[in-house]
Amino acid sequence: MDSNSSFIPVASTFTSPFEDSPRPEDPARKPLSLWPGMYHSPVTNALWEARSRIFERLLDPNVDAPPQSQLLTRTPSQSRTTILYNFSTDYVLREQYRDPWNEVRIGKLLEDLDALAGTISVKHCSDEDSMTRPLLLVTAAVDKMVLKKPISVDVDLKMVGAVIWVGRSSIEIQLEVTQPTNARVMAFEDDTCQECSDASEPVALTANFIFVARDSKTGKAAPVNRLAPETEREKLLCEEAEARHELRKRKRGNFPKEIENGEVNRLEALLAEGRIFCDMPALADRDTILLRDTRLEHSLICQPQQRNIHGRIFGGFLMHRAFELAFSTAYAFAGMMPCFLEVDHVDFLRPVDVGDFLRFKSCILYTEFETTDRPLINVEVVAHVTRPELRSSEVSNKFYFTFTVHPEAKTTKNGFRIRKVVPATEEEARRILERMDLESLQVANNMKK
């Protein structure tokens, strides 16, 4: 990511960003109560303030206005946006993001990543014509998110992202979180950022978000503005994103068939281990545990403060809640504090509305022991929209996380071990094999590059 992006400073705040900045020239400004999602993150406040004129149009779109008549061509630099967290000087902001181990709360960071990706998608897809109806842009998936190094809450943090690939009605946005190896001071003058030192900024986290565009009147897929990469790096990122797009299509088309026709032996082997627990529990391997015995669950009613600009529940809020349940599940399973490594994949299968009864169900899907110092704990979280009055329940989201444990923590706990997880039903065995094979395909694809 280069330095041509627009910079957005973030400050700690517990009030609306608009209360102290009225616009006399705009008497028809919407009441504050109609501005959604304002209080759950300082970053959301900053993004709304920076893009308020675009977002105001999205709050109450004129669905009878004509659609965009001509697609535009934009460059990645036109959508590139940077968020700056002044943790070193803003102590209230620091406390809002501090976890019990003096690192940044990953769940809260997931909210911010989704909010930034949403802003970038709006910037790329907007035609800046108030006479046309804007597109409805929704998070479809998080393709991959990798934590490369711990993120301290005492050092300034930078989050930067841009559109790197465009399909007909979908776009991929790559985000990077960087943190200098030593403290630095950020000075803002005339909406630009001047760095007062030249300390290195290693990448701490990378993430790839997939957004899809819908016509706000018909709800059908809508075409989005084209992308014209300029630099060699931008062209390479676009090629890699195109390869991931093809990989996603292969995943959707091939894996259910492969599991049904070619995985009978693997399926039976997994089920055989589980049957011992079910039929002869006294003889079961003590280093193995049934998948169902690793489950946790959390329920909530979705509130208006958690909605996005389209009135639906903010995807970042859902990821935040899913992450914290996954972390707790890994913690209870390992018996010591887990160390987050990756968001393997997130699917947004259907929207979640204000007032929905949402249930998050988690489990340890499987564990890996390729290296004894770094066992991997793979956690699945599935969100269900439950309607008791209709006696129905639908899956809205699927989240997959990977954790490990700190090697130094294991030395302080005698008899430490990570158990192998086995299924008790065929449905559980299929879920395990599908995730294993998807990960293997991802690894194989990366090795070809």
Automatic annotation (TrEMBL):
<feature type="compositionally biased region" description="Basic and acidic residues">
    <location>
        <begin position="20"/>
        <end position="29"/>
    </location>
</feature>
<keyword id="KW-0809">Transit peptide</keyword>
<feature type="domain" description="HotDog ACOT-type">
    <location>
        <begin position="292"/>
        <end position="409"/>
    </location>
</feature>
<keyword id="KW-0677">Repeat</keyword>
<keyword id="KW-0378">Hydrolase</keyword>
<protein>
    <recommendedName>
        <fullName>HotDog ACOT-type domain-containing protein</fullName>
    </recommendedName>
</protein>
<comment type="similarity">
    <text>Belongs to the acyl coenzyme A hydrolase family.</text>
</comment>
<feature type="region of interest" description="Disordered">
    <location>
        <begin position="1"/>
        <end position="30"/>
    </location>
</feature>
<feature type="compositionally biased region" description="Polar residues">
    <location>
        <begin position="1"/>
        <end position="18"/>
    </location>
</feature>
<dbReference type="GO" id="GO:0006637">
    <property type="term" value="P:acyl-CoA metabolic process"/>
</dbReference>
<dbReference type="InterPro" id="IPR029069">
    <property type="entry name" value="HotDog_dom_sf"/>
</dbReference>
<dbReference type="GO" id="GO:0047617">
    <property type="term" value="F:fatty acyl-CoA hydrolase activity"/>
</dbReference>
<dbReference type="InterPro" id="IPR033120">
    <property type="entry name" value="HOTDOG_ACOT"/>
</dbReference>
<feature type="domain" description="HotDog ACOT-type">
    <location>
        <begin position="83"/>
        <end position="217"/>
    </location>
</feature>
